[in-house]
């Protein structure tokens, strides 16, 4: 028995070492952006025709609008390429001896979400203790949820697991609902238990998002770096990369469509969160936050909050400017099981983000960038090349050139960046899969399907905007989680 266990542990260690080495050698590619840019620029310049119609002015605005986010995203990718060359990034991670880690995983507690929850929670107890001798996993659930007994039984799987149940009668001061309410309960519990300390870190995870040995090493490396930093330069918040291993996918189409998400992490989030000011927001997976800092912000954002992670980030910008960072660590999620769930997921995000852009409790200087990105998103259906060509045909003028030839440069940047995000995101998702590489046909298919993926993204964003305009009652839609 002992020999078998030792063999399994050795195999796991070797697998973890291979993953860590594989990730350490990765850096964002340049050619997947440069080649499409040059091709698009050349074609655009060659096919340009002078155009001063109202259609040309509309296109000039809506197709140029994304360039703000694109320039930020390119900056993020270049920062990663520079950072991976630094020697301190190559120092092997050491166990975190002086800090305590709490992995917090909220769950709605349905039977269809439980398998993914179990997979995720067990990954925490399997991999995090290697670098965190002082830690705990808090599973945060609702009183009376349908999978309550199964969730409670998780405590028997490991002494590191604690199930925290939010009472039905619990009400925040501002009437916050949904996941933010549960997070606020957990935050108040840490204060009551005297865990809201500088040396306590909360690792926020989703109930379908697991970690690996490489994740643990990256988080430990970041926390130890804060111990060595000057007090005026320490960071209080950090974000890693959300990836989607091929093995977690139950739908290849949505897996390919979600290639855009890890690309966003290495682009916009790296540029903004990684330089201290997360004005693009953060996501709730692999979000690391000092407990004492979280205690000053909380999650009590009111009954309309359904994108609590982004709102937390904007409040952090205001209260702790310059104190966030990004780290080159991965967590492992699962894409939506169906295209319908994919759209519903995007709809909820857009619904909440539009409301956040109009939230006057947050100064405009922290909302303007997010507002531009969200506007670009919800205009997606009108920006789609198919819609543009249809309108051009209907009006009898097929000239879709901008009002000035120089605008072609901006358009080429924007479209090349879209190609790069899917290409590089697919590469990241394949990198964290068992094989560690893309299948020969996947890059071809993911680029070819970009027009269809754009329809899904744009449709979800536009539907979320319509729900905001109609002032429909906020709903925190939780899609089924693939195991």
Task: Please summarize what this structure is.
Helix content is 53%, strand content 10%.
Fold and architecture overview:
By secondary structure, the protein is of the alpha/beta class. 53% of the residues lie in helices and 10% in strands. It is built from 19 helices and 7 strands. It has helices at residues 2-24, 31-47, 54-64, 67-83, 114-127, 148-152, 178-192, 213-228, 252-257, 260-272, 291-297, 308-319, 339-357, 364-378, 380-383, 385-395, 407-431, 442-448, 450-469, and strands spanning 100-106, 135-142, 161-166, 200-204, 237-243, 287-290, 324-332. It has a 7-stranded mixed beta sheet, sandwiched between helices. α6 (148-152) links the parallel β2 (135-142) and β3. α4 crosses α10 (260-272). It is globular.
Which properties best describe this structure?
alpha/beta, disordered N terminus, seven-stranded mixed β-sheet, 19 helices
